[in-house]
Amino acid sequence: MSDDNTPAEDPVSEAEELLAAVEDPQTADEAEPEPLPEPVVDEATRAELARVYALLLARAGETQIELRLDATRWACEVLGDIHTAAPTITITGTNGKTSTARMIDSLITAHDLRVGRFTSPHLHSVTERISVDGSPVSARTFVRIYDEIAPYLEIVDGQLEAEGRAKLTYFEALTVLAFAVFADAPVDVVVTEVGMGGAWDSTNVADAQVCVFTKIGLDHQAFLGDTIEEIAATKAGILDRSVEDSPAPKPVAVTAVQDEAAQAVLDEEAARREVPLATEERDFRLLDRQRAVDGQLITVQGRRDVYSDLFLPLHGVHQAHNATVAIVAAEAFLGAEDKPLDQETVAEGLARVTSPGRAELVRTGPSVVVDGAHNPDAAHVLAETLTEAFDFDYVVMVLAMLADKDSDGVIEELHRSADVFVVSENLNSRALPVDDLAEVAREWVDEDSVIVASDLNAALMKAIDLANSVDAKSPGIVVTGSIYTVAEARLLLGRGEER
């Protein structure tokens, strides 16, 4: 979870506006439309989803963190221990969590198991956060399950208030809802993406059978600490057992390549808990990758086998490493289930992976790429991916960020990839004012290379005009800075997908 998801001042209005904005998806010029798992919801269901979303948003937002697990655990227990209904794979880290979770989901689904996936944030609809069988849960199911668990959430709220404590937060309630959906389905395995940190994150209420660490960097320092070591120690909390007499077996852990400081902490924390830790480059590795049309071919040395010439329909070396970690996580889980990975099935699973909003080409003529990079590490990865995967000889960088993010660090990573910046504001209440963002950008590029647009619609129109008028063989537009920026741009470009 990026903390780009705090509720607006008027939760009912935000819910209605978001739902009203998502109409029948319009296909980008370059691709066939993706099949939708169900028709666009009718008006009655739309209204019911708006009602439920407003109730969720009325709770303390995702940046109003409660450092606790017991509240989520109480709610899960009164609902029948729904957090223990299926074995769990938990993913934490700073960047790459959602993509890795989607890959693990696809790999295990390809091996004939039913997967429930809980990720954050969402692009267009809150239902995207809870997935069953590879697709967002239907609006009807989302509403039905919420209404079924609402009385129990109220009981827990009452207990908390009687103790002088805050009621369940938005993210805590949403986590409980996800586990309730998965228990109702039911699913064979749950894949959860940690919202923030690990030790006290609501998703940690489930004892993971496989604990996955993507690359750890600096982000959310106000909650996680100012050093890599502090952040890594908090994220290592997913190794803990939080269920008394847990039915889950002792976990195994898998980690991507980490900075030396983060790796030392993970090694120490895993050893202290006597949890086996498989580390990329040390215990498994990406052997080879080659650029391919619409993606890349990769070969991975896993813990159990070598998986050769796998097509991954995502761009960038970071996604190849995410896939490597996902394969080993799937090996660890399916090996424990005595269902080892099959080479052909691994290829099938990876070939089906999508990751909307991550170096995603959403339009051609001119080409528009959207990416939710909101911190310097993610911006660095985006810059590398643009160089490798896209043949742009002129880049218009459309940038809109939130005020609590490191805009200077992001622009430092991106300015060499951009010929011109079009800076703007997204619709989030915490958006960085466009004049402030422009001032930061002018610290890195000439003043003539910074164009100010009051809103994203105006920014996109200006960017398209620039790309169409410039004397370049392959101009491109890159929209980035926040997941909110990406979501708004996708809607404006006709790529809002209602599930």
Which SSEs are present, and which pair or pack?
Elements lengths: L10 H11 L21 H15 L12 H9 L9 E5 L4 H14 L4 E4 L11 E3 L2 E2 L2 H24 L7 H15 L4 E5 L14 E6 L7 H4 L3 H8 L16 E4 L4 H14 L3 E3 L5 E8 L2 E7 L4 E7 L4 H20 L6 H9 L8 E4 L3 E4 L5 H14 L4 E6 L7 H8 L5 E4 L10 H8 L8 E3 L3 H14 L5 E6 L2 H10 L7
Helix pairs in contact: 1-2, 2-5, 3-5, 3-6, 4-10, 4-11, 5-6, 8-9, 12-13
Q: Major sheet, described briefly? A: 8 strands, mixed
What is the CATH fold-level name of the largest domain? UDP-N-acetylmuramoyl-L-alanine:D-glutamate ligase
CATH architecture label name of the largest domain:
3-Layer(aba) Sandwich
Q: So what's the overall shape?
A: globular
- Number of β-strand runs: 17
Please name the fourth-level CATH homologous superfamily of the largest domain.
Answer: Mur-like, catalytic domain
Q: How far do the termini sit from each other?
A: 20 Å
Overall tally of structural domains: 2
Helix content: 25-40%
Q: Briefly, what CATH class of the largest domain?
A: Alpha Beta
- Class based on secondary structure composition and strand pairing: alpha/beta
Task: Tell me what you see in this structure.
This protein has 499 residues and is α/β, with parallel strands linked by helices. It has two domains: 11-351, UDP-N-acetylmuramoyl-L-alanine:D-glutamate ligase (3-Layer(aba) Sandwich); 360-492, Mur ligase, C-terminal domain (Protein-Tyrosine Phosphatase, Chain A, Alpha-Beta Complex), CATH 3.90.190. Helix content is 39%, strand content 16%. It has an eight-stranded mixed sheet, sandwiched between helices. Helix 14 (434-441) links the parallel strand 15 and strand 16. The longest helix is centred in the first third of the chain and has 24 residues, at 139-162. Residues 1-39 have low confidence and may be disordered.
